Amino acid sequence: MTSGEFVIEAQGLTKTYRNGPRKVQALRDVDFTARRGEFIVVLGPSGSGKSTFLNILGGIDHATSGSIHFEGQDITAFGDADLTRYRRDHVGFVFQFYNLVPSLTALENVALVTEIAANPMRPEEALDIVGLSARLNHFPAQLSGGEQQRVAIARAIAKHPQLLFCDEPTGALDSATGVLVLEALAEANRSTGATTLIITHNATIQQIGDRTLRFADGRIVEEVSNPTRKRPDQMSW
Ligand code: ADP
Questions:
Q1: Whose C-alpha lies nearest to ligand 1, atom 17?
Q2: What is the CATH number of the domain that holds 147?
Q3: Residue 73: Cβ within 10 Å count
């Protein structure tokens, strides 16, 4: 059971993929808790299970065994309808590629989500949080890569999610643009209070988190708290 302190709590998570006769053990007995509003950086080599972990916590993949409690409910026991509601109302995702609808403006891309969410903010407010108030009526092709990613962040937070999961959000961006995207994520975390997990290959980014998890071979092999969390523009490279 989750207590009030933890928004999400996973116990004994395992995931085995089967490719024909071959089995891949993507997660091995992972335990994890996160507090409300925490900003967590997830590091580890390619293939160590980071994306699998995030996808299972976010209800877009199923664990082979183990439990995940979100606000006291075991989402691993959910049927499809409850899992859809969990993803739709409580989890914001940001991926490496922005997946915006090219024929819709920034505002309309965000409104796609606010129209179906249970507790949305106004699309203008979400775009203001990521610093794009001056770009509401621009189409994706009229925005830089970093601006498109900030629209994707606005879309993810516009539902007021308790959880904001980001898989390599700066992976396709140069470092100066990446800092702007991280600033948008830090502000999204601060102003919405969403517990934020960011997968990255860039160890520098751990300076802006409250805690770093390091994955290797399907396990969390190291957890380090960072009491002196920095702002993205203060990171030393
Ligand atoms: P990371 O995000 O750390 O790069 P992943 O979670 O993507 O790692 O992958 C962990 C392991 O699981 C890898 O060996 C990967 O090849 C395997 N894997 C991931 N997704 C699938 C899938 N859908 N089918 C089969 N194997 C998968």
A1: 26
A2: 3.40.50.300
A3: 14
Tens of pLDDT along the chain (237 residues) come to 445 689 999 999 999 999 899 999 999 999 999 999 999 999 999 999 999 999 999 999 999 999 999 998 999 999 999 999 999 999 999 999 999 999 999 999 999 999 999 999 999 999 999 999 999 999 999 999 999 999 999 999 999 999 999 999 999 999 999 999 999 999 999 999 999 999 999 999 999 999 999 999 999 999 999 999 999 999 977
Q: Is the CB of 200 under 6 A from ligand 1?
A: no
92 lines ligand 1 (CB under 6 A): no
The answer to whether the CB of 214 is under 6 A from ligand 1 is no
113 falls within a domain: yes
Token duo for residue 30: 């992972």
**Which residue range forms the structural domain that includes residue 78?**
6-229
Q: Is residue 237 part of a domain?
A: no
Give Cα 204 distance to the centre of its chain.
Answer: 18
User: Model pTM?
Assistant: 0.95
How many separate domains does the chain show? 1
Q: Is residue 217 part of a domain?
A: yes
Which element (helix H / strand E) includes 88?
helix 80-90
Residues 6+ apart with CB under 8 A from 195: 7, 8, 34, 35, 36, 37, 38, 40, 162, 163, 164
Residue with tokens 């309309």: 108
Let me know: does 7 contact 69? Beta carbons within 8 Å.
no
Q: Is residue 212 part of a domain?
A: yes
